[in-house]
Amino acid sequence: MQELRKVWLVIIMLCLAVNSGCVKTQIQEMKDNENLQQQEPSISTTDDTMSPEPVIEQQEETVNRGELEETLLVTTTVFSNGTDDQDGIDLIVYACDQDTLELQQLFRKKINATYPANTVDFEHGIFYFADADEERLYDNLYAYNLLTGDTTQLTGGKYTFDDLLMVDGQLYANTAREYCNAEQPARFDTGKKTFTYRNENDDDTFHASFSYDRYEDAFLILTFQISEQRTHRVAAETHITPKTISWLSKDFQTVTPVFFTEDFEINLTRRLDKNHILMTTEPYMTGKRTLKMLDIETQEVTDVDIPGILQVYMFYPARDENTIFLIGQNTLPSWQLYRYELDTQTLKQVEFPETPRQIVDLQLTYQTSSSD
Predict the structure, then answer these.
(1) Which residues are 337's β-sheet partners?
(2) pLDDT tens digits, residue range 100-121?
(3) Looking at the DSSP assignment, which residues form a beta bridge with residue 175?
(4) pTM here?
(5) pLDDT surpasses 70 at 25
(6) How far apart are CA 4 and CA 339, in angstroms?
(7) What pLDDT, on a 0 to 100 scale, did the predictor assign at position 129?
(8) 69-79 and 89-96 as β-strands: parallel, antiparallel, unpaired?
(9) Quick check: helix, strand or coil at residue 130?
């Protein structure tokens, strides 16, 4: 059987070609040809003022799961009118072929999000994203059905979202709810439309980075204390926020510290291989942002110099433990998307079909597909 991911991309491209959504007979025919034994989720629009309707149901897994598939999601924004923001901003999310660097558009929508966090459930064809109504300073969670084109608002509160992740068929978020300052991991129940937080009573521990670590089958988190960041020592003397890298179990019950420092600022962390963690760092709270590598066992930290790149804003290492996708800055003032090979030090820029206003985010998602 061909990879389920490639099938979904073909289906999605068909969806984009038809203004009203996919032709269901075409989709069913494709499913039959690929022997996809999966059930489409039931999605309906609900909010706090509407009576209950059918919702996305979470079901027990009943199929054997195959090899984890790796997909690079690239989030950008563009001017809706192609020139300026007078007519608003469009969110575009691409799937990037890691070999050819070809970009396929998965999703496009005019948005008002404070930050457009997003992810894709490829198994069920659901695109999850954060968005807001016009002139509102908070976001909510939405689901877009890639087959039907239907959009559902899943939450009716006041949130900020920094990350959305799909892990083992479960949706997770790094989010802060109303009246809270600290973003923290939360598991979202798509049936009940509720969040389960790591610690809903903790509004001091801020999670600055949140990703899935497949080596530990846990989350890799970067945390600091808001109260400490506001102290005179940090704010006026060191200008460095003490931060801790840890592993957090998927049930949020176990935290294993990995590394602590107040020698430099850490912005983002991702697992590279069995022995190393990559991180973007700055000498102080503001400064040139570059890559460093942490040896987990020895705790040694070394610089990762990428020829031609002055700063690294965001990155994701691929599963091959050699390829890094990054949003970087070269001699030009703008940020670009690159693929970098550690062994050969080969750097290649990714070309966009539509010039981005901003390259917002990168995410390598690891999801399973049905086996024969």
Answers:
(1) 327
(2) 999 999 999 999 999 999 999 9
(3) 161, 184
(4) 0.83
(5) no
(6) 24
(7) 97
(8) antiparallel
(9) strand
Q: How far apart (Å, rounded) are the C-alpha atoms in residues 118 and 130?
A: 6
C-alpha of 232 from chain center: 34
Q: Residue type for 201, please?
A: N
Task: Answer whether residue 182 shows pLDDT above 80.
Answer: yes
Q: What is the rounded distance in angstroms from the CA atom of residue 13 to the CA atom of residue 106?
A: 8
Q: How many CB atoms lie within 10 A of CB 131?
A: 23
- Give the DSSP letter string of 244-267: EEEEE-TTS--EEEEEEESSSEEE
CA separation, residue 232 to residues 119, 201, 240, 265, 283 (Å): 38, 25, 11, 17, 18
Token output for 230: 């506001």
Residue 4 has pLDDT above 90, yes or no: no
Q: Do the beta carbons of residue 119 and residue 363 sit within 8 Å? A: yes
Of 132, 149, 187, 360, the closest CA to residue 141 belongs to 132
Local structure of 326: helix, strand or coil:
strand
The answer to whether 175 touches 203, Cβ cutoff 8 Å, is no
Q: What is the DSSP letter of 188?
A: E
Helix, strand, coil percentages in the chain from 3-state DSSP, rounded to 5:
10, 45, 45
Rounded Cα distance, 189 and 187, in Å? 7
Amino acid letter at 221? Answer: I
Give the tokens for residue 33.
């040809």
- Angle, helices 24-34/4-17, rounded to nearest 10 degrees: 160
3-state secondary structure of 87: helix
CA 313 to chain centre: 15
The position carrying tokens 């291989």 is: 273
Tokens of 7: 């099938």
